[in-house]
Amino acid sequence: MSAASQIAEKEGLKEVTEIVIKLGELQQIEPALFSFALSQLKTAILRNTKFRIEKDLAELKCRVCGRKWTSATAGLDEETKETIHFIPEVAHTYIRCPECGSPDFEIERGRGVWIESVKGVRPDD
């Protein structure tokens, strides 16, 4: 949580009350385990911090027809979603463009983990 501590320091916060973290829909991270890990990393400035993890829906773009769509795992059964969760590269096997049916698409969003926002208390609050 070094990045959050750096943001808090830059913003002059004496305490961080909330950190919103975006977690890509296709990222290989289990949200419950990630949340637990975050709770174990709390430093003095983060001791009372509430971590809010939000899913960043995948945005895909067909390389054939140019159509963009979101929520890559919508309509897939749980086993297939889990397979994609653990091995995102297999998404091309299960997901097709809703316009032309092509499996040739690029993932424009839905991968990665980042801090979306940091809220806190300033010394004069």
Largest sheet features = 3 strands, mixed
Strand order of the largest sheet: 2-1-6
> Low-confidence parts, pLDDT < 50 over ≥5 residues?
none
Order of helices and strands: HEHEEEHHEE
CATH class of the largest domain: Alpha Beta
CATH architecture of the largest domain: 2-Layer Sandwich
Quaternary state, please? single chain
Per DSSP, the total helix count is: 4
**Total beta strand runs:** 6
Give the amount of beta strand, in percent. Answer: 25-35%
- N-end to C-end Cα span: 24 Å
Q: Report the mean per-residue pLDDT as an integer.
A: 86
Roughly how much helix do the residues carry, as a percent range?
25-40%
Look at the helices and sheets and give the structural class: alpha+beta
What overall geometry do the principal axes of the alpha carbons give?
elongated
CATH topology of the largest domain: hypothetical protein PF0899 fold
Radius of gyration, CA atoms, in whole angstroms: 18 Å
For the record, the count of structural domains works out to 2
